[in-house]
Amino acid sequence: MDYKVVVPMPPNPLELPLAQISGVGAARAAQLQRLELRTVGDLLLHRPRRYEDRRHFQRIADLHLGAPALACGTVTASGSRPLRGGRSLFELILDDGSGRLHCRWWNLPFMRNYFKTGDEVVVFGKPGSLRPRTMDHPETEVVQSLERSVHLNRIAPIYPLTEGLPQRWLRSLIWRLLEQFETAIPEPRPNRPLAGRNLTVGGQTVPLPSRAQAVRLLHFPEELDDADIARQRLALDEYVELQEAMQARRRNLEANARALPCAGDNRLMKPFLAALEFHLTQAQTRVLGEIRRDLAGPPPMRRLLQGDVGSGKTVVAACAALMALESGSNVALMAPTEILAEQHWRNFRRWFEPLGIAVELRTGTTKTGTPAGQEALALGGPGVRRARMDIGTHALLEEGFAPEKLGLVIIDEQHKFGVAQRERLVRKGAYPHLLVMTATPIPRTLGLTLYGDLDISVIEGGPPGRGRIMTFVRERESLAKVWEFTRGQLAAGRQAYVVYSRLEAEDSPAGLKAVKKEFGRLSELFAPWRTGLLHGRLPGAEKEEVMAAFRANAVQVLLATSVVEVGLDVPNATVMIIENAEQFGLAQLHQLRGRIGRGAADSYCILVTAGKTEEAARRLKILEETADGFRIAEADLALRGPGELLGREQSGAPPLRFGDLTLDGPLIEQARDIAKGVK
Ligand code: ADP
Ligand code: MG
User: What is the pTM of this model?
Assistant: First the structure.
């Protein structure tokens, strides 16, 4: 007989469900689940929202007005009384020998159940008055000497909670789990020890702690800096994991994917460049060299083309498209708005149709395009296939769009799309080359985490011969002057954008009504010059009509919502007025400003603010001072975080629990080295 001995695998203790931990009943487990905490491991990584330094008690007599402080005293009296309007006040008086402190809570009558005279109570809060000494709604704990070491006399973690889950209970549980499971927390890469690596904390270099140490310090730091050391170590692990995933994806692509060779033979490029009304800049030529090398394959190109607004990315995309088309492949270009797709379609048709290339437009509302068979017939009979370029919006992602021999995919204003959308378009071909373009300058650190799997090309500076862009911040009160100035520009033959500020104004009926009212006002104000209205809710054909009129200078003032943010190119427009500018992020304002300064004449961007708050004024000043998109992006990143910089649509932003892209530049660089196996 042959017996097989089945040894149960020792379960990974970090995967133990919290419900199986003694002291965690079904009700508590359900509350924890609402915080997405299911296992021991989840709870050990539950990040405190903040910390309270409970090592230093202040004498009640020494409390300062408005300065948060920790005090401890004996309850000498407590009680609640009803107030008018169904409200109530609960008051607790503490005495620590040096003085008395009145603690007050409104509308929390049940507080009276928590305290009795003689209890020793710790409170943390801001004194709101000194005569008598008072704290309103302080945090409190009744001292129970047993738990002293967990909650008091230390730097205490304050966790995010959910309804019904007590801070103290959670803190005790985490303490207990740490005691039990700390040694079970593994190093993520045991064969590649991180010994010898350092962190910078508060200007000091400190050795990297082990992951287990970091988890303990995360919850129970000995010194204030420890919490940051812990955060950085755990963030490093997150970044390494991200980088490894991206590098693996990249390696896999290089090893397995075979793209069509698309470097071209200059057959179409030569006549194209000869007919182009300008010469490519050095930067554009250099980037094209980088793209051509990639397109030769066989690994598919994965390249991000970054260049500030107006730097001339479109023509680079056109050249890349020509290389693919010359090689017998078809090309698809996706843009985030109908207006922009339509503009590209216009340009590419003008450029490519003389070369015998069909350029088709596909948006939600338009579809040019001819069935493949018909096309072949039109061009000299079956068997002769005409090279084809499709330009469109998200409509290109629909199933109905199934291009043959898709060799190159180009995505304009890539930050407006999610990574999933990018991949969906790529999957329309076998392994097409991919060129994504963005005018949102991504600070390097963000680029490494978001685009670690892409090579990056940068166009520095724009084409020569452009006028200056001057930027001014003005308050609403001076609008009359702003309009007068604008009329002056119109009289000089220029055109103007007025961006109606209220974000998403067209999304609500009331907002749309406001836009239309504003339109009526401006039409009168600027008569006899003509004003056009452009917003996201307009039917596609009407959008085109308005844009065409503005482009042709049949309309001189374009009142628009932020739909004009991306890509529009009307060189004769020299004025950009943005109302309620404080409601936009800096990077977005920079994009809007990029609509002007595209011709030889000087341009003017006027940021109109509703009310001037200090903070808004300081932010907008950055735009007055610099036109450097990178500096603006850095500032935006620091001021508003990555979400704002990337826009709401960006679904590719990694979910970071400990990482903070605004702080972690050096960590991210370390992570890349670790992921690559660099010492
Ligand atoms: P963006 O990088 O913002 O997409 P565009 O591609 O729309 O910029 O280019 C802005 C303008 O600059 C367009 O009118 C384009 O024709 C023009 N342009 C691009 N490259 C050059 C160049 N090398 N010399 C002169 N003008 C150029
Ligand atoms: Mg563009």
Answer: 0.71
